[in-house]
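User: Hi! Is it possible to get a structure for several chains at once, not just one? Here's what I have:
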Amino acid sequence: MKARSREDLSSGRAAAAVGSAALAELAHDHAPIEAGAVAGVEPEARSQWQLFWRRFLRHRLAVVAGGTLILLYLAALFAHQIAPYTLNPNLGDPKVLLQARHGPSLHHWFGTDELGRDQFTRVLFAGRISLVVGLSVALVSTTFGTIVGGLAGYVGGLADNFLMRVTDLVLVVPALAILSIAGKASHGSVVTIVLILSVLFWMPIARVVRGVFLSLKEKEFVEAARASGASGFRIMLRHMLPNSIGPITVNATLVVGLAIIAESTLSFLGFGIQPPTVTWGNMLAQSEGSVGTPTAYLIYFPGLAILITVLAVNYLGDGLRDAFDPQSTR
Amino acid sequence: MADEDLPISPTRPRPPSGRGDLILTVEDLHVSFPAEQGVVKAVDGVSFEVCENEVLGVVGESGSGKTVTALAMLGLLPRTAKLSGSVRFRDQELLNLEEKELRLVRGAEIAMVFQDALAALNPVYKVGSQIGEAIKVHHPEIRRHELRERVVGLLDLVGIPNPADRADQYPHEYSGGMRQRAMIAMAICNDPDVLIADEPTTALDVTIQAQVLEVMERIQDRTSSAIILITHDLGVVAGLADRVLVMYAGRPAELGDVETLFYRSEHPYTLGLLASLPRLDQDEPDVRLHRIKGQPPSLVFVPPGCPFHPRCDFARLPEPCATQIPELRSLDDPSHVAACHFSEEVREKKPEDLRPVVGS
Amino acid sequence: MLTFVVRRLLYSIPVLLIASVLVFFFVRETTDPLARLKGSGNRDLTLIQRETHRLGLDKPLTTQYGRWLKDFVRFKWGDSLVSGRRVSTDIRDKLRNTLQLIFWGIVASAIIAIAIGVYSAVRQYSALDYTFTGLSFVGLSMPPFWFGLIAIQLLIFVPKETFHLQHPLLYSVGIHSATNHGTLDYVRHLILPVATLSVQLVAGWSRYQRASMLDVMSADYIRTARAKGVPRRVVLFKHALRNALIPLTTIMAIDIGSLFGGLIITETIFGWPGMGKLFFDAINNGDTNVLLPWLMVTAGFIVVFNLLADLLYGVLDPRIRLA
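Assistant: Yes, the chains can be modeled jointly so their relative placement is included. Here is the combined structure:
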C-alpha cells in the first residue's frame, strides 16, 4: 500500500512542477498497454490498429474533438486566406481608427480593439502562434522526455538517479515562478518560449516512459530478444518503444493543451511572447484593461479560443487513452 | 469471560435428525447481469431450503453462481442485477424488501462471512470497532462498556489470543487466520438465524484452514444458527455439512444429504468432483486423480440442453443431453435430487471408476 | 511521528541547499539587478560602478553565492532594490496576506471537490455527474487568469450595470475597502481571488475524488458494512468516504507548488498585496534581492506543506507507519 502511494506521489511529482492540476490528472493513468499487443507480426499489428481505431471512434466526444482540432489547425494554416482584414493595418489611418471599439457585428465578428484592429483576424493569426507553440513543446518535450525516461527505465543507474533527483528538486520551486523569470530574461521570442516550456514538460513524460519501460523490461518478449543477442539500443527501439506508444501519445497530446495554457499565462503576465507577435495570451494581456468597460467583449474571444482548443486536446487525449488502454475504467 | 456475557445463546442440543424448523426457502432464484456480449445468467433457477441447526454446503467451481446466490439473498448485488424468484426467511419475502427493511435483516438475522478477510475488513477502523458497529447497528441502546465486553468476548470465542488488546488493532496487524476469525466473530455477534460463509477458508494456509473450520464447528455446536457454507472444497463440506447443493453454471446439479451425495452421487459432475479429490484413507498408488475435461462454460453462452454435457463422460449426444435441459428429479429418496438424464446410470458408478489406472 | 517529522525536515535541508544553488545561479544569470538603473537613461557610469561594487556583483559568482547564503540563513536578506524596504519585513507582511488566500483556497477547493466527487460517484452516470465531468474538463482547459477576468466582468460589472447597483456585490481589488473593515467586506473581497485560485484545483481534485470514491465503493469492505446492516448513509460517509480521502491527500500535496504559481496570477489580477504580487513586481523591476528570498521562502513552504500532507496521510491511513 505504502509503495503504491509513493509511486502515485512520484509519478505526480513532475506534474506539480507544471503548475497545473491537469497533469496530475494525467499522471495517474499511465498503465502500459498490454505488452506484446503491438509488437506482434505484421498482419496482427494491423488488426491491433484496427481495434484501436474502432475503440477510438466509439468515443464520440474524442472524435468531435479531433475534428475540431483539425479545423483549428487548418484555420491557422490558411489564416491569410481566411482573415477578412489584414493583421497589421496602418494604425494611423483614420479609416482604421474610425472602426475602433466596435462591438461584435457582421463586419467584425469579434469586434475591434481601441486601435480599430479586427479581433477575428487577430485571434486567427494568434492561433497560429499558440497552436505551433503547443505542438512544438509537445514534440520537443516528448522526444527529450522519451529518451531520458527510456534510459532511466531501461538502463537505470545514473540516468534514473538523475531523473528522480531533478524532478524532486523541481517540486520545491513553483514552476510558474521559474518560467516567469526565464521568460522575462528571454525577451519573448517564440523559439525561446518553446524551449523554456519544453524544459518543464519533458519531466512528466520522462516519468511515464520510465514507468512503462521498467515494467516492459520484465516481460518475456524483451527477455527473449535479449537472450537472442539483440543490443540494448535495438531492444529499446524495436521492442520497448512500440509498446510504449500509447502512454507516450496520450501524454504528448495532453502536453499540447498544458503548453498552450502555460504560454498564454506567461504572455498574460508579460513574460511570454511579446507584441507585435500576436498570441491569445498577449491579446488577453492587452485587453485586461477593458474589463468593466464597453469594450469588455475583447476578453471573451481569445480566451474562448484557448478554451476550445485545450478542451479539444483534452478530450482527444481522453479518447486516445481509452482506445489504447481499454482496461482503464475511467 | 463468563458465558452469559456472550451474545451466543448457550449450547442447545441439536435434534437427532439434524433438521429443525424450516427457516429459509429459496425458490426458483434467477439472477442475471447485462454485459457487453449479452446477458450473464449468473443464477438460473436455484431452489433449496435451510432448516435450523442445519449446515448446507454449496459446492461448485468459481462462476457456478454460489456467491451470487448468497449475495442475492441479502440484496447485496450491484444495482444492475436482475432478480426473480423468491427468497423467504421465516415468513418474510426478502427479494422485494425495501433497502430499509432489508437492512434490519442483514447482520441481525442473516449474517455473512466473506471470502477474503483482508479485503472485507475496513482498513482504517480497528477490528474491535468494526465488530462493535455490527452489534450497535441492531442494538443502538447498548452501553459502551457493555459493547466493549461483548466485542472482546466474541474475539475470545473465535479463539483470538489477548482479545482485549487485539480489539484495538487494525486489520493489517492481524494474521490471515485471525482476520478470518474476526470476520466470523463479526458475523455471529447478533446471533443470526442464518450464517452464510462464503469460502471462509479459501485464502488461508492449510493449517489455518483447519483452525478456522474448527471455529466454525464450535459456533455450529453452540448456536441454533443454520449455516450455509459456500466452498469449492468438497473436503470442507464433508467435514461440516449436513446437506449439500452442487451447482454448475448457475444451475443446481445435485442436492442431498452429505452421505448420500458422496456415496451415491447421481450427477456426473458431483462424481467428477469426488474423483478429483485425493483420498488419504486409501492406499492406491496406481491410480491417478480424475480431471474433469474442459472449462466451465461462459455464463453468457450456456451450452444448450444440459450445461454440463460438453464435459460429461456419460453424455449421449445430441439427444437428449445437448437438447433437453434435465429437470431435478429423485430416484428413490425424495430428499436426494439430481439434474441428469442418466442419474440411474451415474448412481452405479463410484468415483474410483473415473480415475485412470496408471499403465492401463 | 516526531522522528518522522525531524527526519523529513533534515532530509529537506540538502534539497533546499541544492535548490538554493540552482536558484541563485539561475536568477543571477537571467536577471540584472541594475537593469532599472541602466535602463532609466542613467549614463552616470560611476553610479553604476558604485552600485555594482556595493552589491558585490564584481566578485566571482561562487563568492557571491557564499556571501548571499551566509546572509540568508542569518535572516539578513537586505533591502529591496526598488522600494528600499527591508526584504524580510516585506515578505513577512505579504506572507500574512497570502496565507489567507492559500488557506481559503485549499479549504474551499477541498470541500467543493470532495462534495462533487462523492456526489458524482454515488450518482454515477446521472445528469449531474455528466455535468460535473464536463465542467471539470472546462475548468482544466481554461487559463485561470482568464477565469479571473471573466469572473470580474460577469459577477461584478454585468450585475452592477444590469441592476444599477451603487456598490458591486463582490470586489476585485485588494483585501479591504478603504473605509470598511468588516467581515462581510472581507468576504466580498475574498470570493473572486479564491475562486480563481481554486478553479483548476476543484476541477482536478473532484475528478480524482470521484475515481477514488468509485474505486472504494466497489471494495469488499463496503459490501461487508452493508451486510452488517449499516445504513446506506453511514456506509457512504463513514466507510467509503473515509477511505476515499486517503489518496486525495497525495494529490493535494502535489498541487501545492501549482498553488503558489496560481498566486502570482491571482494576486496580480486582483491586486492582492501578497507574495504573488510581490514576485510579479520584483521580476518587472529586476529586484533580485526580493526574488531570491522569495523563491527560497516558497520552497520552504512547499516542503512544509508536503510534510503536512504526508502527516495527514498517516493520520488517515493506519497502515502507514510514520517513522
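Chain A touches chain B at residues 1 (CB under 8 Å). The longest helix of chain A spans residues 119-154.

User: Great, thank you!
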